Amino acid sequence: MDIKSKLWIEVEGEPVFGRGRRFLLQAIDTSGSINRAAKEINISYRKAWSYIKAMEERLGIKLVERHAGGKNGGGATLTGEARDFLKKYEMMEEGIKEIVDKKFRRIFGK
Fold first, then answer.
1. pTM
2. Are 34 and 66 within 8 A, CB to CB?
3. Are strands 64-67 and 14-17 parallel, antiparallel or unpaired?
4. DSSP readout, 65-77?
5. Average pLDDT for 79-107
6. Which end of the chain has a smaller Cβ tally under 10 Å, C or N?
7. What is the pLDDT of residue 71?
8. What is the DSSP string of the chain?
9. Which of 76, 81, 80 is nearest to 27 (CA)?
10. Rounded distance, CA 42 to CA 59, Å?
11. Is 61 exposed, middle or buried (0-12, 13-18, 19+ CB in 10 A)?
């Protein structure tokens, strides 16, 4: 028996960041492209773009630098603020997991 928990961040009652959006930013980071990242996590480019826009607006920080296409095509990279935010979110996720696991073992003896 295992226990699972979810963590997401809201601003004024609106979801801003959670596991799925973390996967999107990480995929942008590894692929260098919003389009490839969207395909990788099985969402449309339009949905990925709307997630990025909503996150940036609600968090008040720039997360993704977009590079216009050209001879070698366009691309996208995470900003330093995005990398810092991801690191902090991952620390929160791990912290929540530790707390939940500890309480679960204490209550269920597992």
1. 0.86
2. yes
3. unpaired
4. EEE---TT--EEE
5. 95
6. N
7. 58
8. --------EEETTEEEE-HHHHHHHHHHHHHS-HHHHHHHTT--HHHHHHHHHHHHHHHTS--EEEE---TT--EEEE-HHHHHHHHHHHHHHHHHHHHHHHHHHHHH--
9. 76
10. 24
11. middle
Using CA atoms, how far apart are residues 36 and 13, in angstroms rounded to an integer? 30
pLDDT at 48: 97
Tens of pLDDT, residues 37-57:
999 999 999 999 999 999 999
Task: State both tokens at 54.
Answer: 């909503």
Assess whether pLDDT exceeds 90 at residue 74: no
Give the Å distances, CA to CA, from 62 to 12, 69, 70. Answer: 19, 20, 23
**Residue 82, Cβ density class (10 Å: 0-12 exposed, 13-18 middle, ≥19 buried):** buried
Q: If pLDDT is split at 50, 70 and 90, which confidence band does 5 have?
A: confident
Residue pair 83/72 in contact (Cβ under 8 Å)? The answer is no
Return mean pLDDT, the chain.
93
